[in-house]
Every structure is written in C-alpha cells, then in structure tokens.
Specification:
This protein is 38% helix and 17% strand. It is built from 7 helices and 4 strands. The structure holds inosine-5'-diphosphate and magnesium ion.
C-alpha cells in the first residue's frame, strides 16, 4: 500500500468543496489515514512548494496557499499517488478532463482546488512536513476484500 498527501486548497474550502473532494476520495476506495484543517504559515508554504521557488508564479502561489484555511490529508491505497493524481486531473483546470476534481470544479491554474503529491518521494516529504507520525492512524477498513483482489 502507498500513502500520498492531499490538500484541499483555500479556494476549495471557501467554495464549500471539502465534502465533495473527500467524498470522491472515499468512493474511489482510498482510505483516509490522517486529516486536519490548518492555516498554512508563509514558511511552510515556501517549504512545501520549494521545487517552484525559481518560477515566476512562486510568490503568487505562496500567497494563494496561505490565503485561508486548507484541509490536509494522508490517503492510503494501492498505487495511491497515481490514483489520486488521476482523480485530481491536470494542473490547469482548463485542460483537466470532466470527471476529475479540477475538470469539474476549476477555471484557473492559480485556483485549482486541490494539491496531490506527484511521486512517492514527494508524498513522503510532504506527509512529514504536515503530519507527525502519531497523527497518522493505522486501521483496517471493512470491505477491503471487495476493493482488492
Ligand atoms: P500540480 O499541483 O498539478 O502538481 P505543479 O506544477 O506542481 O502542479 O504546480 C504547483 C501549483 O502551482 C499548481 O497546482 C498551481 O496552483 C500553481 N501553478 C502551476 N503553474 C502555474 C502557472 O503557470 N501560473 C500560476 N500558477 C501555477
Ligand atoms: Mg506538484
């Protein structure tokens, strides 16, 4: 099983999409093993998006992600990184396919509703930035035998 990091960004929270996003994650068959609401500080935002620190949109991105509360999650499942990226859709909601979160709920690359880790390495890094080990809950979920062969 893999774990990935998912975050409902400030626009997703303000637009009342928290339930919708969580619902899609649950219905797909993924297991939520950690979740919290927080208001990200500037330093954490810069660290989270460090790979983009030289990009022209970096400061706007930091301003966006610190503009209101977010909902952060750790999500577990078989190939969870890839599965969640597929659920989330392309970075630019203009190009994201209908049926994906960004395709169904976004209009602008700078307001694309959710974040999801892009690799197992990013997932491990991002999970440890946002959660301590004791905030991640291990449990078995009923019906797993109907999800996995
Ligand atoms: P991702 O979120 O799909 O992994 P990244 O390329 O890692 O996409 O970019 C991180 C975030 O930075 C995007 O989700 C989006 O909010 C923002 N972003 C990416 N490219 C642009 C851009 O060209 N203009 C403005 N914001 C951008
Ligand atoms: Mg990314």
């Amino acid at each position: 099983m893999e774990r990935t990091f998912v975050m409902i960004k400030p626009d997703g929270v303000q637009r009342g999409l928290v339930g919708e996003v969580i619902s899609r994650i649950e219905k797909k068959g993924l297991k939520i093993v950690a979740m919290k609401m927080l208001w990200i500080e500037e330093d954490l935002a810069r660290e989270h998006y460090t790979e983009h620190s030289e990009k022209p949109f970096f400061q706007a991105l930091v301003d966006y992600i610190t503009s209101g509360p977010v909902v952060a999650m750790v999500v577990e499942g078989k190939e969870a990184v890839k599965v969640v990226r597929t659920l989330v859709g392309a970075t630019n909601p203009v190009e994201a396919l209908p049926g994906t979160i960004r395709g169904d709920f976004g209009m602008d690359i700078g307001r694309n509703v959710v974040h999801a880790s892009d690799s197992l390495e990013s997932a491990e890094r991002e999970i440890s930035l946002f959660f301590s080990a004791d905030e991640i809950v291990e449990y078995s979920k009923s019906g797993e035998e109907w999800l996995y062969e």
